[in-house]
Amino acid sequence: MSSRTDTLRLLILDDNEMTGQTLQRIAEREGFDVRFSTVPQQFFQWLDEWNPDHIALDLVMPEMDGVQVLAELAQRNCRACIIITSGVGGRILEAAGRSAAEHGLRLTGVLQKPFTPAEFRSLLFGSEGSPSPVSAPARQATLPVSAADLAAGLQRKELFVVYQPKVDCRTGSLVGFEALARWRHPHAGLVPPDRFIPLAETHDLIDELTEYVMAEALHWFAQVRQQIQANNTGCTPQSIRLSVNISARSLENSALFERIEQCCNNHELTPEHLVLELTETSAMQDPVASLDILTRLRMKGFHLSIDDFGTGYSSMVQLVRLPFSEIKLDKSFVMTARRSQESRTVIKSIVDLGRSLGLKCTAEGIEDNDTLNYLRDIGCDAAQGYLIARPLMAEHATQWALECMRQSESRRLLDLHNLHLLDTPPEQRFDRLTKLAQRVFNVPIVLVVLLDEHRQWFKSNLGLTMRETPRHMAFCTHTINYQDILLVPDTLKDPRFQHNPLVTGEPHIRFYAGCPLRVANGNAVGTLCLIDRKPGALNTEDQDLLRDMAHLAEKELQADIQAITDSLTSLLNRRGFESRATDTLQLSIRLRHSAALLFIDLDQFKSINDNHGHAMGDDALRKFADMLRQVFRESDLIARFGGDEFVLLMSNADKQQALDATTRLRQAIADLNRQSSFPFSLTYSIGWASLDPDNPQDLQALLAEADSNMYSNRNQSHGRAT
Length: 722
Ligand code: C2E
Ligand code: CA
Ligand code: CA
Description:
Number of strands: 24
Structural class: alpha/beta
Number of domains: 5
Bound molecules: ligand C2E, calcium ion
C-alpha cells in the first residue's frame, strides 16, 4: 500500500477480449492504471493484491455470473466504484444494480453495450459512486404489474427475501433481522414491496405471500443460527430473533399461524424466535377480534411488534390495549431527527411511552450517527437503518451476522479485561452479595461469574469449590446473550443443558437463574447466578430482586477500589460504606427485612498514638479491623468511618441478633486484649439503631440515632461496652 502512487486504478472483468481491451484503452488514455482479466479467479487475485479504485464488471460471463461476482465483492467489503457493463436488457441490469446497492457496494452506474467512449468516461469521472439503492442506474421497475403477474411470480418463485440487521443501540451487538420481501419480475425488473404488497392484500394473495416469505426466511434463519454456533464467535445465537411483516388482513387466518408454527418446528425454532410486525390498518379495527387473535399469538410465544408507530392508525390506545412486546418507531421521524426538533420530540415521547409500558423500542430508518447517538441517549433499545446495514441478500446477511458477533465479542472481552478482576483473590464485597442472595433466594450455590475467552471464572463462588470451568460448559455463555434473566427451571428438561457436564456431574445443576452483569456501555462481562440441585422457579418479584442484586454486583465490578476502601485496614471507607449501605437498606425495605446499624468508637485512641507511637496505633487499628471481620457475618457491611470510628450494617438482622453481635464483640475484644502484646487495652463505646422496614428511616437518620445512642452508652458506662 505504501508504494501506491496517485494514479487511479481500474480493474476490468469481461469475458470478451475486445470489449475489455476497448475499456482498457479508453481508461489508459485518461491516465488510469488498468488491469484486465477474462476470468474471475485472476480478477479476484488482482482485487486483493492491487486494490483498484474502480471496477468495470461484465454481468454475463460463462464461468460465473456477474451477480455472483457482486456478492463476492460485497463479502470482501469492496470499496471500489463499480461500473456494470453488459449487453443484456436494461431491466436485468437494473435488477443487478439494485442487488449491488443492497449489498452495500458503491455502484457508479451501468454501461449498456454497445457504448461510446464518452459514456464510459462520464462514468469513470462523473460519479463518486453512490451506495444508494435507488441511484439513477439502478432505478426500480416502473412497468405496471398485475395481480395475475404476482400470482405467477409466487408460483415461479420470483420473490425472494432480504434481511436487514437490527442491533442493540448501546452495544451494537446483533439482536435480529427483519425479513423484507423482494420481487424480481422477469420483465418489469425489481418491483418494490410498496407496490406488490398492497396488490397482494387486495387480491387475496397476501397469506400465500406471507407463507412464502416465512418459509424462506425461517430456513435462512435456522442456518444462520447454526453457523453462528459452529463458527465459534464466542456467542450463542440464543437472543437473536427474526422479524417478519404480517399484514393485518392475515390476522383472521388462524390456519396461517398454525402453518407458521409448524414451519418453526421443522427448523427446530420456536415462536419465541419470531417477531411478528404488524402495522395498524383499518382491518384491525375490530378491537375485540384483534385482541383475541393477538393474545393467542402472544400466548403461543410469538413476539408482537407494532410497526410504523406514530403514523396512521396506530395509537396509544391500541398499544395499551393489545399485547405488543415492541414498538417500532416509524422511519419518517427517525430519518428527520437530525434536522427536526419536532421529530425528536415525537421520538422521545414514544420511547418514554414504550418504557413506561415495558415495551422494547426499535428505531428504523437510522441513516446518520447523530441520530443513533440521540436514540441511545434517550434509551431506545434497538436500531435499524442504512447506517447499520441495508437490507442484505441472504448469504451477505449471514456473513454480516458472523462478523458482527465476532466484533461484539472482542469489544466485550476488552471491557472484561479492563476491569482487572480476572484471577484476583476472593473479595468480601462480592462474597457479601452472594451470601445475601443465598439467604434471600434460599439456594445452595450463588456465583459471580466472569466469562473470558476460554473459561468461566468465579469471582465469588458460594457453595462451590471449583473456581472455574471451561467456557463450553458455562451456562453463562447463554446468559450474557440474553437481554434479561435466563431461567432454567429444570436443566434435565432443557435440551441445551441436559447433557452439560455440570448437570450430569458435579455440582449437578438442576435449577439455574442467571442475570447478565453489564459494564457502563452495556456490554455483559459475566453473570450473577443462582443454582440449585433440585428443580426450581423464580416468580416475577424474585426476578426483580435478582436484577437489583445484579445491579449491586455491577456497581462493585466497576467500583474504583482505591476510592472506596480504607488503605490501612482494607475495610470500606466512609464513601464506600454510604453508597453500599444505602443500596442495602433499600433492598431490606423491599424484602421487609429488618437491619441493624452499629456505631463503634475506640476510647482514648489519641492517647495510644501519643504514648506508644503511630506505628503501634496503626497496628491496633488493623487488629481491631480483623477482629470485626471475624465477629460479623459475610453479608454485613463493615467500614472504618474515620480515625477511630467504625460502622457496621447487619442486613436481615433483628434486635436480638444485633444484641448477640455486641456480646460476641465484647468477648472478642477481651480475647484480643489478652492475646495481643499491646502495652495497653483497647476499649470502645458502641451504639446501635435498627431499621424498621414498615416505617423505614434513611441511612443518615440511622447513623444519627446509633451515634447518639453510643454517646449515651458511653456516658453511662465510661467505656464499658453495653
Ligand atoms: P417496513 O416494514 O416499515 O420496512 C422498513 C422499510 O424501510 C424497508 O423498505 C427498508 O428497506 C426501509 N429502510 C430500512 N432502513 C432504512 C433507512 O435507513 N433509510 C430508508 N430510507 N429506508 C430504510 P422496503 O423493504 O421497501 O419495505 C417497504 C414496506 O413493505 C415495509 O415497510 C413493509 O411494510 C412492506 N413489506 C416488505 N416485506 C413484506 C412482507 O414480507 N410482508 C408484508 N406484509 N409486508 C412487507
Ligand atoms: Ca416492518
Ligand atoms: Ca416500519
